[in-house]
Amino acid sequence: MTAPADSYTRSQSVVLVVLQVLIGWHFLFEGLAKVTSSHWTAAAYLAESQWWFKGVFVRLAASPAALVVVDFLNSWGLVAIGVGLVLGLLTRYAAIAGITALALYYVAAPPFVGLSYAMPSEGSYLMVNKVLIEGVALLVLVMFPTRRLYGLDRLWFALRHRSTDASVHAPA
After folding, report:
1. Measured in whole angstroms, how far is the alpha carbon of residue 41 from the centre of its chain?
2. DSSP characters for 37-105?
3. The whole model's pTM is what?
4. What would the pLDDT profile of 96-155 be if each residue is shown by its tens digit?
5. Residue 169 exposure: Cα atoms within 13 Å on the Cβ side
6. At 136, is the secondary structure helix, strand, or coil?
């Protein structure tokens, strides 16, 4: 169950929108960095995978055809999620897609004690890392939506609401 946006205080609304834009910026920046790099690929990240789906991720890294698809979906997916969150466009779907991407990153390289990776990590604190924290923050945005507060979703909602009111009050 989600809270109605009109029940938020002004401070709550501002904090939720700022959280949404900051996470969106992070996704957008990461996606654009991958899209604009001629050398970026997810191969090394996938090849080092550990935990439950190690076999799946390692096979993806070893398949040139699969890797092209994974790289495209990863880089452009990050861009799309970022644009959606920053512009307030389809924010619920963007947040759910972001949670899905982050869950895949977490499962591929969990920050568990005893697991080590060749690529430097940005810190992990006994099962908690920035991937998990950002995923939970996106879950907050799903549970406390901003679509009526900010962005293109707000305009869409206002137009849809206005057209519904007009049809209800139209003479018969």
Report:
1. 19
2. -SS--SHHHHHT--STTHHHHHHHHH-HHHHHHHHHHHHHHHHHHHHHHHHTSSHHHHHHHHHHHHHHH
3. 0.83
4. 999 999 999 998 888 876 566 656 566 667 788 899 999 999 999 999 988 888 888 888
5. 6
6. helix
